[in-house]
Design goal:
single chain, 182 residues, Heat Shock Protein 90, 2 domains
Length: 182
């Protein structure tokens, strides 16, 4: 719903009052979804601590992934990476990385993956990038994204940010998530 609202809002160029109404609808939708998400997480007991997120990724996800697949993973953490993330944000970012790793393993034939954790130049956005050296992905207009890509994009939108995918010039895929720091 949020993605459809965003697409329709973009089409309303020059209609400031309509765009403000869409902004309000998106804010209400994000609030409602956050409440539902919190209820689901509480019911599932599926929580991730926001403290030492890089350490959690390394031990909970990256090391087992490397052992299981043989794909080498390098993580680069910028000095300005926040020491603490809200638990819900940490869980969403964790799941995005998890899905990106699985996509690289299943579809790309990657031998190396790099994960970058940092802030945007303005220091207003958390940026997470997952890049692999695999085959990349087709750019055909009729190719529909799979449920994993849809889920990653939905998680980014729910956090008030966005997710972009790009084919690297040298082959492979880059997935970039940018969400507000606050």
């Amino acid at each position: 719903m949020l993605l459809e609202l965003e697409h329709f809002k973009v089409e309303q160029t020059g209609r400031a009052s309509v765009q403000r109404q869409f902004d309000l609808l998106q804010e209400w939708t994000r609030d409602a979804l956050a409440n539902v998400r919190d209820l689901v997480y509480d019911l599932r007991g599926d929580s991730v601590s926001g403290g030492d997120f890089p350490g959690l990724l390394r031990t909970g996800l990256l090391e087992p992934f490397v052992e299981r697949t043989g794909i080498q993973v390098r993580m680069v953490v910028a000095d300005e990476w926040p020491a603490q993330l809200p638990s819900a944000t940490a869980l969403d970012l964790y799941r995005i990385v998890q899905e990106a790793l699985q996509n690289a393993f299943r579809h790309s034939g990657a031998r190396q993956i790099e994960i970058n954790l940092g802030l945007s130049p303005t220091r207003r956005l958390i940026e997470l990038t997952v890049t692999d050296d695999g085959r990349g992905f087709p750019t055909f207009g009729d190719l529909r994204p799979g449920q994993g890509m849809i889920g990653m994009r939905e998680r980014a939108v729910l956090m008030g940010g966005d997710l972009q995918t790009a084919a690297n010039a040298s082959g492979g895929t880059a997935i970039r998530v940018a969400i507000p720091l606050a």
